[in-house]
UniProtKB/TrEMBL annotation:
Annotated Mop domain residues: 294-368
Keyword flag Kinase: no
Protein name: Molybdenum ABC transporter ATP-binding protein
Listed GO CC annotations: membrane
SMART domains (alphabetical): AAA (SM00382)
Record PROSITE patterns: ABC_TRANSPORTER_1, ABC_TRANSPORTER_2, MOP
Amino acid sequence: MTANGLTCDVVKQLGCLRLEAALEIPASGITALFGVSGSGKTSLLRLIAGLDRPDEGRIAIHDDVFFDAAQGRWVPPHRRQLGVVFQEARLFPHYRVRGNLTYGMPTAARSRFASIVELLGIEFLLERFPGTLSGGEARRVAIGRALLSAPRMLLMDEPLTGLDGARKQELLHYILRLAREIDIPILYVSHDPQELSAIADDLAIIDQGKIRAHDRLERLLMRFDLTEHLGGFDAISVLDAWVVGHDASYALSYLRLADGQQLTLPRLNVDLGTRLRLRIPVRDVALALASSPAISYRNQIAAVIEEVGDSEPGTSAVELRLKLNGMGGTNGQALRARLTRKSFDEMRLKKGMRVVALVRSVAFDTSQPPPQA
């Protein structure tokens, strides 16, 4: 655990659910807590925030202990220096946005007011009342208020719930900016795989009150043993890439993967050198035994079959994990593919075999993630 990261190992009986969760959150970046409704996501966040008290265990940021059952230590919420953003904005209706942002703001945070307002794009909202704000605007104000409390960590409980697609994308953009520019850890609770794959650095899977797995997002998505816990996640792969060129005549952009291979996407309105996160649907990945200029797939990625998933009896599909150009799924980038057992057998595929992953240019979905810690 790095300095200022959070450690949590708690037990709490919640009606029929017994929460027994051990979690370590890095000192920077976004850790996503994912699980179905009723799995214990929000309950764990409330225990960390101090809104509820665990029955047993310990919670600490570095050497600052918030709760320790063995020592009888309990620090109330207002002394934990944690910013909390709920599903509802919970703004004071009789205060303007400026008043909501500055309510309870410590003196030390005053110098950051202008930069936080600019970061969240809410300058034009300062003199308005909460009742006049859209859902996305109100959430951004709530995030700003949490940041201006000078928190050591930000806890976000499904902040995109209830927003439409455009407002979701807008708020995701601001959360990504926040993660890049504000150097504090963020715990982000959600049940939506698509939004988490866009912003999460780490992913923790909670199921029936227990943390089933916690690792870098891209590594967990490659684990076949977690498929039943991953919900919609198992349908995508996540790769990081850097923009290295644009082709105006064909309206294309060129990206470089960590292993040096190049990808072609429809033109992106981003600067050269920008790091992007690519979400590649499994359904848009095909396999070939060799590259070829005589097919329409422009993205032909050299890879090695790293693992073959066990297909269930009676099913027609086989899952494959591909390591890109010899870079393993643990220490490098990997890609997940799914094909019929008939194709698998006819191509005589096996573990360790070199193949070419074919990905259509239009299959990529991009977002800009925070930098690596």
